[in-house]
Amino acid sequence: MAEKDDDSIGLSLSLSLKPPQNLPPPFPSNLMHSLPLPFHNNQHHHHKSPLSDAFRSISDRNAETRSFLRGIDVNQPAILADGDEEVAAVSSPNSTVSSISGKRSEREENEGERASTTPDDEGGEETRKKMRLTKEQAAVLEETFKEHSSLNPKQKVALAKQLNLRPRQVEVWFQNRRARTKLKQTELDCDYLKSCCENLTEENRRLQKEVNELRALKLSPQFYMNMNPPTTLTMCPQCERVAVSSSSSSAVGSSELATTGVGIARTANQKSMSVNPWPTIIPHRFKTTD
DNA sequence: GCGACGCTTTTGATTACTTCA
DNA sequence: TTTGAAGTAATCAAAAGCGTC
């Protein structure tokens, strides 16, 4: 039953092996991908793929971390049978036993701790005391999470063994981490969209104002005073685009603007929202001479 | 300075439900 | 269609952090 990962599943806790390839862009970039980096290289759940027959690589840093961890008394010294899943009754160094609620132990009994054989433990402490992971444990988990946001059973067991935790604890930690990462990303996305919305609202307000001014100007008699006859400023009543049909583009000041009618309807990928689409048209035409 | 106290935040754990092979 | 193993979402509650007295 207990599959022995004799090649000692080198938990690749190092980030140094592969230089991070797709560094997350500074900002929500992931509105499209929607999840942060770790999720990207995440193959679909159900890790049946042998791809991840445990993390392969052991880097210097990993070794370092490992020896480091060996030195630490991470929780109580759990004696782990090599192949068979451990599950020493784990408790944090500070807090007492992490006990388990009745239902939980029941469940573990039933499912046999999934990967584990010995549901062990805790001897039936009623009060559910929560253990907190040590900094070192948390650090290793974080490192691992950066590489793989979820673990296959082998990895889970190996990591648990390494950290002197129960596989279930590792599993739970990863679940929580995924959930909270996602939540955080959602918040970021939300903020980003909010600011986009504000910008667009502001832009819209400004453009509306400009349209109104143009309308007013168009009706004003002054408007026609210095106008070259061939030049006409027309506005489509439906789309409200302004177009100038003129032989002399200088009359408007921005021929490109006029002939393409890009004044109001601009493309979405235009760089800056705050670019004034009417750079010269009004000041140029209505320069007073007195 | 320091300890008690209350409130808030963080985080390990549980439960219910969904998805997929 | 059923089943079991994986996942997520929501929630609880212990531990830690922090400000105040």
Strand order of the largest sheet: 1-2
CATH topology of the largest domain: Arc Repressor Mutant, subunit A
Tally of DSSP helical segments: 9
| Helix and strand element order | HHHHHHHEEHH
- Going by helix content, strand content and strand pairing, the class is mainly alpha
Low-confidence stretches: 1-127, 246-290
- CATH homologous superfamily identity of the largest domain: Homeodomain-like
Apparent shape? rod-shaped
| Overall pLDDT confidence | 54
The main β sheet shows up as:
2 strands, antiparallel
SSE diagram, text form:
Layout: H1 37-40, H2 60-71, H3 102-111, H4 135-147, H5 153-163, H6 167-219, H7 222-225, E1 232-235, E2 242-245, H8 255-260, H9 281-285
Antiparallel strand pairs: 1-2
Helix pairs in contact: 5-6
The structure holds a DNA duplex (21 and 21 nucleotides).
Characterise this structure:
There is one protein chain. The chain is mostly helical. It folds into 2 domains: 29-187, Arc Repressor Mutant, subunit A, CATH 1.10.10; 228-290, no CATH class. Helix content is 41%, strand content 3%. It has 9 helices and 2 strands; from the N terminus they run H-H-H-H-H-H-H-E-E-H-H. The chain has helices at 37-40, 60-71, 102-111, 135-147, 153-163, 167-219, 222-225, 255-260, 281-285, and strands at 232-235, 242-245. The protein has a two-stranded antiparallel ribbon with strand order 1-2. Strand 1 (232-235) and strand 2 form a beta hairpin. Helix 5 packs across helix 6 (167-219). The longest helix is centred in the middle third of the chain and has 53 residues, at 167-219. Mean pLDDT is 54; it is low at 1-127 and 246-290. The structure holds a DNA duplex (21 and 21 nucleotides).
